[in-house]
Amino acid sequence: MKIGQKSLFIFCCCLGIASLIAYSLNLNKISVYHGDKFMLRVRTGSSFSTSTPSKFKDILGRLNVTFSSFQTTTNITIKVNVSKMCEKICDRDLLTCVNPDVAIVVYDNTSPDRMTFKQSFSSFPATINTTEGGKNETHVWSQKRKYCPITDLDPSFQIVRMQNSCAIIGNSGILLNSSCGTEINSHDFVLRANLAKLEGYTEDVGNKTSLMFINGETLRHLYSKLFAKRTNNQSKSNFEDLMNYTRTLNDGIIWFGKNTQESGYGDKLAKIAKFLRDKRKVRFGFSMYGVGKPISTIWKSKRYPSSGLIMLTIAESFCKNINLYGFYPYQHDSNGSRILHHYYEPNLLDFHTKNHDFEREHQLLRSLHQNGRLRLILKPCKNGF
User: Fold this and answer.
1) Residues 93, 258: Cα–Cα separation, whole Å
2) At what angle do helices 307-315 and 358-370 cross, to 10 degrees?
3) CA–CA dist 234, 61 (Å, integer)
4) 60 lies in which domain range?
5) What would the pLDDT profile of 77-89 be if each residue is shown by its tens digit?
6) Are 167 and 299 members of one domain?
7) Which keywords fit this entry according to its UniProt record (predicted)?
8) For residue 373, is it within any domain?
9) 157 in a domain, yes or no?
10) Whole-prediction pTM value?
11) Segments in the chain below pLDDT 70
């Protein structure tokens, strides 16, 4: 099909959200579908045919769709969709918008069978399918919209409501003997990572959990414990411990921040969601694209961000006041006492890793604390910072 004689400009604007699609076409007749429900035929020299359904004409009027004249005999089908590539994701009910790179997409009380965890939001373009000489061709466009209602992506999606006070709990041994548990529980929203142990440590770390971030390793660990054959006492004990732990979530969100299309993560999440939603009051969330690379870009880091930095970055999209506990990457405190890598593991591990730059991140957090952007707690809560 030859392209270049005439131009077709389709301006789509849905609820104040605009998307521009432009292409030069030779054609005589067009069939236009919106949402695969309505059809419009446009012939040479006319904007709308007399057979246009009035309901669809109203839709086209709202979308501000216009056509040039057409002179050739090619038949073309055009599917007009609004792009799902968005600069901001918004929740009308919550009156808030967030950057999709750091947005947490949370399923509402949807049946687990509908939870797919598919990150396909960047692929909702306008498509033109052409047929000429028995050959089918498809032309695809997509362009970012400025604001996208979260329910346009999926009616079952929500984003996190704005919170006044948030606590983000790192897993450093600096928390031991801190007596910060009561203070942590007093915050409106508490974020934790990777199923860190709470039993036996609540005086120091609290027991409130609003969001549990899990990385790929923890997801695999969670999956294996839930679905392993419980043929011996150890496997039965692992399962029971995990089920007891999930009781502490109490309507909290289990959030996976990586690309769900890698390593079968999406399928594992869907199976876990179906299993736990039948037994626990817990919600599930994921990221629109995978947060690692965007967050590294935000903080200009050459390495993959740690779980703590990931939680901080996404929390800034819905927390007015952020408090960090258990963020300390060193083996000794200011008094020279030894510090465990994780407060719940009685061993000293190598604090340095090729994956994360903990020391640089800690210096960043200190700088943000000094600038008043957050509060970094490094001493026992009874003594303050």
Assistant:
1) 27
2) 30
3) 65
4) 7-85+123-152
5) 444 444 456 788 8
6) yes
7) Glycoprotein, Glycosyltransferase, Golgi apparatus, Membrane, Signal-anchor, Transferase, Transmembrane, Transmembrane helix
8) yes
9) no
10) 0.72
11) 1-85, 120-145, 347-354, 383-385
**How large a percentage of the chain has pLDDT more than 70?**
68
Q: 3-state SS of the chain?
A: CCCCCCEEEEEEEECCEEEEEEEECCCCEEEEEECCCEEEEECCCCCCCCCCCHHHHHHHHHHCECCCCCCCCCEEEEEECCCCCEEEEEECCCCEEECHHHCEEEECCCCHHHCCCCCCCCCCCEEEEEEECCEEEEEEECCCEEEEEHHHHCCCEECCCCEEEEEEECCCHHHCCCCCHHHHHCCCEEEEECCCCCCCCHHHHCCCCCEEEECHHHHHHHHHHHHCCCCCHHHHHHHHHHHHHHHHHCCCEEEECCCCCCCCHHHHHHHHHHHHHCCCCCEEEEECCCCHHHHHHHCCCCCCCCHHHHHHHHHCCCEEEEEEECCCCCCECCCCCECCCCCCCCCCCCCCCCCCCHHHHHHHHHHHHHCCCCEEECCCCCCCC
Residue 132, domain member (yes or no): yes
The Cα 306–Cα 360 span in angstroms is: 11
| Burial of 252 from C-beta contacts in 10 A (0-12 / 13-18 / 19+) | buried
* Structural domain total, the chain: 2
Same domain as 214, residue 140 = no
Are the beta carbons of 124 and 84 closer than 8 angstroms?
yes
- 16 in Cβ contact with 146 (< 8 Å): no
